[in-house]
Amino acid sequence: MPVVEWDDSFLVGVEPFDDHHKHLVDLLNRSYTELVHDAPMESCEELLDELSDYVSYHFVSEELWMMENSYPKYEQHIAEHNNYIKRLQEFQQDYKQGKAETSLEIFTFLRQWLIEHILKTDADYGRFISTLNQKPGLT
To answer: Residue 77 has what pLDDT?
Structure first.
């Protein structure tokens, strides 16, 4: 059972990032499934590493896009990204140290944060670019 069900409410209207978000939800679901089904530690660690790597790739891509498009909430957005990365790294470390209870707590945080971040913070840059695209002479 997935921990996050993808639906179109997650679409922000910036195609590469919509694809990134789908992939992040998939990685989060796969990581959760591995964790709750007591998959071998190596398998879980690989998925967590993949999730962490992809999160970093996605965040850098978003941040570059925001900078190029003079997104006004750029600094606030980066602060949220940095918080998520910090917590994800804590999650990975706790898992490797065998702290399953702490890992489940942090996993709940990661899930909630991702959902809220996409639906609120990322949706805001979707609205921002949509407004820019409606103005004559701007792209």
So the answer is: 96
**Is residue 137 in some structural domain?**
no
Q: What is the pTM of this model?
A: 0.86
Amino acid symbol at 40: P
C-beta of residue 103 within 8 angstroms of C-beta of residue 91 = yes
Which residue in this structure is represented by tokens 């702490």? Answer: 102
- The Cα diameter of the chain in Å comes to 57
Q: Answer for the pair 68, 60: CB distance below 8 angstroms, yes or no.
A: no
Domain harbouring 120, CATH code: 1.20.120.50
Q: Tell me if 134 is assigned to some domain.
A: no
Rounded to 5 degrees, what angle do the CA atoms 70, 53, 17 make?
40
